[in-house]
Amino acid sequence: MGSCTSLSCFCQRPFLFLFPGPGLFQCSLTGLVFDVTRESEVTYKTLIWDPLVLQPAHKVAGGPLFGIECPRDSIRQLHLPHCEPEPALVSDSISVVHITDDGMSIIQPLEITETHVVVDVPHLSAFGLVWDLVERFFNYMTKPVRGQVLLFLRNRPRPILSVMLLPGNVPLHDVKAQHAASEHIEAPSFCYFHKGQKYSLSSAPHHFKIQPARAEFFENYGPNYHPTFEIILTTNAEEVMLMVQDPEETRVWEHDLHLPGEP
């Protein structure tokens, strides 16, 4: 599988990707995979979901909504990233919406791999992964989803660490673009969350102020990515252990965060 070459990296502005010929190409920023028939270029960007469009079809968003443009017949299939740890068990509930000026249609997947939902492309416009509303509610009561914990550090004037709990198929690029004034702290981020459960953040040492005490995880696909938790750090802290815990106080994610000490 090849990789796409990005010529534009600004949130809400299109990406431009150049394909040298036929084959599979994956975007490293969003996880999208394009099955390309010939040398061509494609532009696309993340769009904002309109819940009023999905509600009549009893669907809820299961991933970002992408607006895609390219020459006709140059893309045969799309592979949209999902965040299901056991996709075979929920294959009847996942589908893809195709939104054009004429309205919305539902496309059934050709295949669901461990990481992506594969669909044929009738013609390009907006594509997004969706869930059946009733099935999604039932599955959330019993099955987790792959999530990610993202860390952003800012100073005003004391260091404040923002901690975000998000679905695993939210593009990091989109989140970073909304927090350009903060430093993204790279850390192993993937874990498992249940929708509707309340999680807490704790630290060692324990004297840092963390707010709120608990927060509910939900599938947030934008347009806003607000911090789930904030932790106020002291300037002389050099190392902090961060832990995200479920309602039974089981650790679902932890990380040793190294910070610069006092000058």
Automatic annotation (TrEMBL):
GO terms for biological process, alphabetical: innate immune response
Compartment list: Cytoplasm, Cytosol
Location of the FIIND domain: 1-263
PROSITE patterns recorded: FIIND
GO cellular component, as recorded: cytosol
Chief subcellular location: cytoplasm
Record bears the keyword Cytoplasm: yes
PANTHER family for this protein: APOPTOSIS-ASSOCIATED SPECK-LIKE PROTEIN CONTAINING A CARD (PTHR46985:SF2), NACHT, LRR AND PYD DOMAINS-CONTAINING PROTEIN 1 (PTHR46985)
Protein name: Uncharacterized protein LOC102206948
Source lineage: Eukaryota, Metazoa, Chordata, Craniata, Vertebrata
